[in-house]
Amino acid sequence: MEPFERYRPIVDDFEAFLAACERPLGTAVRVNAIKATAAQAMAALEADGVAYEQADWHSRVLRLETDSPGSTWASYHGFTHGQEEVSVVPPLVLDPEPGERVWDACAAPGGKATQLAALMNDRGTVVANDNNLGRLSALRFNAERLGATSLAVTNDDARNYSLASFEFDAFDRALVDAPCSCEGTIRKNPDALDEWNLGHVRSIAGVQKGILRRAVQATRPGGTVVYSTCTFAPEENEAVVDHVLDVEDCAVVPFDLSLEHDPGLTEWNDESYDGSLSKAARIYPHQNDTGGFFVAKLEVAA
Amino acid sequence: MPDDDPPADDDPIADGERTAGDGDPAPDCEATSDDALAENVGERFARLPRTRADRTVAGRVSRADVVEYFDERFGIPPETFDSYTFWEKGAGKIWVYAGEAPSPIEVESLGMLCLRTRQEHWKPTTDFVQRFGGRATECVIDLDEDGAARFVAGDDQELDWDGDWGYLIAAHTLAGEREPLGVGLYVYGELRSLIPKGRRRHL
Known about the structure:
The structure holds two protein chains of two kinds. By secondary structure, chain A is an alpha/beta fold. Chain A has two domains: about 1-20 and about 85-300, 3-Layer(aba) Sandwich (Rossmann fold); about 25-85, Alpha-Beta Plaits (2-Layer Sandwich). Chain A has nine helices and 15 strands. In chain A, the strands form three sheets. In chain A, strands 5, 6, 7, 8, 9, 10, 11, 14 and 15 form a nine-stranded mixed β-sheet that branches. In chain A, helix 7 (about 200-215) crosses helix 8. Chain A starts with 13 loop residues before the first helix and ends with a strand. By secondary structure, chain B is an alpha+beta fold. Chain B folds into two domains: about 35-130, no CATH class; about 140-195, Archaeosine Trna-guanine Transglycosylase, Chain: A, domain 4 (Roll). A five-stranded antiparallel β-sheet of chain B has the order 1-2-3-5-6. In chain B, strands 7-9-10-11-8 form a five-stranded mixed β-sheet. In chain B, a hairpin with a 4-residue loop joins strand 2 and strand 3 (about 95). The interface between A and B is large, with 41 and 34 residues. Chain A: Its EC number is 2.1.1.-. Chain A: It holds the Pfam family Methyltr_RsmB-F. Chain A: Keywords: Methyltransferase, RNA-binding, S-adenosyl-L-methionine, Transferase. Chain A: GO terms for molecular function: methyltransferase activity; RNA binding. Chain A: Belongs to the class I-like SAM-binding methyltransferase superfamily. RsmB/NOP family.
């Protein structure tokens, strides 16, 4: 937990934060609305004999009392998909509508991309891209298991993504759930900090800036871009958004989030960020007994 | 191991018309030179022609063929697919897609692989059957709890079935509703599970 010491000044109740990071994460699933209602999924889990609790902040998040959420009829039929509770947040913030064109820039293994398709009633176009060919097979497997028919899967570098394959020249919305240092996944993956160093954080921030910038460019005027990571590092979060605010014509906009969270930072060490970054959300593990996440919502200038 | 091969005799599925590919000429030529009566190109998705008369690739099945197959074999109403397009990638692999795309298009995948038409007997996929098989009224075999568990584990089982032989939708009742499990092959008193390895579970 040594790398987390630098967050002591910004995290309320830092000891509770550290303690939460040391506790293993519970098992959560998202109900896949393409195949089932929350009631159907819960009935299937009852038939499976698996106890569950519905998250109070979102009816389609279920916390299961089992270590193998994949070994249920609900999972077999694609009624449920194992997905970390906070990772359900970014697609909800993006809030796509049926019929829209939506880009998921870093989509593998597909939990959020299929959630986007479900939020659109599987109507419209979700272009689910990932640069990692090896992870695309997981994305495709999940998309088909969950019954998503509105997904097109592409394998490109999101930083210079071309829409030439499609007939439209801009997306209505884009999700950049960026590759990151994954500090917020420590409860699921205790090795997440083994490779941690500031050089890695800074180099991955360069990639993040490139992807977010391209997402803003590829989204129509007035369209929406959501930027998220599962890490706490301001270099990968506020600093990335701050950079893109400087170089592209877009603005940070507020959103409702019923999970407990902190506002985004407007200063960190010797840096200061655009004041609008206080509209972003930092979700810490001790606040809702989840993993950690950062989410910012941008509107592309009309 | 489930056997992908269909029964060799006693053919219950009248699919000769659909798979013969008897080479109707292309209607006329809006088609670009590289796809007029061309071969199917393996690495890209091409949208199925509306009917056989519209096709520009020799042997390619049409949308009408596909919709008719799902209707005739399983009783899935044709209007189920009104807002979907069908695509071919690879020889005879048909995909169902709800989004937008020009044809042809080179992407990793487009919607869901739904049907294999290369074999003598067309074969729907497990994922398709789970997604759309709830609307089927024919060739659905209902399994009890034990049978369903064996089916998704990949085991074959002896069963009585007085309907057509060939590819069937296996289903069970979950929380009071009939839910399709996947595709099975029924021949000679045996239901073979065709659940792909990656989808099998011990439940």
